[in-house]
Amino acid sequence: MGSRKTGMIFGLAVLACGLVCGCGNNQNTQDAGGDRKPVIIGIDKFEPYTYLDMDGNVTGVDIDIATTAFHELGYEPQFEVIPWNEKNALLADGSIDCIWSCYSMNGREEDYQWAGPYLYSRQVIAVRTDSDIQNFDDLADKKVGVQVTTRAANLFLHTVDSALPHVKQVNCFATTEDMFAAMRKDYIDVIAGHEALINELIKNGNGAYRLLEESPHVSKVGVAFQKGTHQELAEKLGGVIRELSENGTIGTIAAQYGLDADKVVVRGDTDEK
């Protein structure tokens, strides 16, 4: 998911006394969902997937998909914003049952018990609407803006495998706001980053910017359980996720948060986007 901000653990709902962790460790508890069993989901704050709205409520693409999917299975999800660098320890000690927060499966396939994938996470490139840049080849002599330590920075700096050309200049900014400001002031020709972030520039630009059709990197997003645990739940959840994809539910949710459902929803068991 790229670099993230960590936060204090935030409980969306307070369970009845005695509840320490979720479905994998306390089989007899019930919650506000009636007969549904609780499942504790660790999340990061990453808009539009998992974040807090103006009233402090957890919301987002993943929140809606997780709630719908787990309700189908008879579980009531309880979302906790966790210190992201502690996610594996929290999984291991049972404090959370799974991670569901735009979490990429790529390169981590053997690290967890997965359900999914259910979405593609895309890196995208934005230019001014009147720019002559149409594809990767047109980037060669351009000045590019990226946020430091992100996947987009690695791709343009070629510290990871990349199909991008070597550009004239890569400018690494500390914040998204700085990167957007440089684009608005014409200091750079191109910006690149996660689709969720770059869409903010597009949305607020009133038609001044557009995305290139090509994506420099696409990863698959899934639900991560501790390896060797929750096998049955993960398998059932994967089945429900496929159903929600096929019946259009995931696409509808994604579109409500400004994502292009045709490009981000995983359909079927295809290995390639």
Short synopsis of the structure:
With 273 residues, the chain is α/β, with parallel strands linked by helices. The protein is built from eight helices and twelve strands.
Describe the structure.
The chain is an alpha/beta fold and 273 residues long. It folds into two domains: 10-120 and 219-264, D-Maltodextrin-Binding Protein, domain 2 (3-Layer(aba) Sandwich), CATH 3.40.190; 122-217, Periplasmic binding protein-like II (D-Maltodextrin-Binding Protein, domain 2, 3-Layer(aba) Sandwich). Helices cover 26% and strands 26% of the residues. The protein has helices at residues 61-72, 87-92, 151-157, 176-184, 195-204, 231-246, 249-256, 261-264, and strands spanning 10-11, 37-43, 51-52, 58-59, 75-81, 98-104, 112-128, 143-147, 169-173, 190-194, 209-211, 217-226. Strands 1, 2, 5, 6, 7, 8, 9, 10, 11 and 12 form a ten-stranded mixed β-sheet that branches. It has a two-stranded antiparallel ribbon with strand order 3-4. α3 links the parallel β8 (143-147) and β9. α1 (61-72) packs across α6 (231-246). It is elongated, with a radius of gyration of 20 Å. It starts with 9 loop residues before the first strand and ends in a 9-residue tail after the last helix.
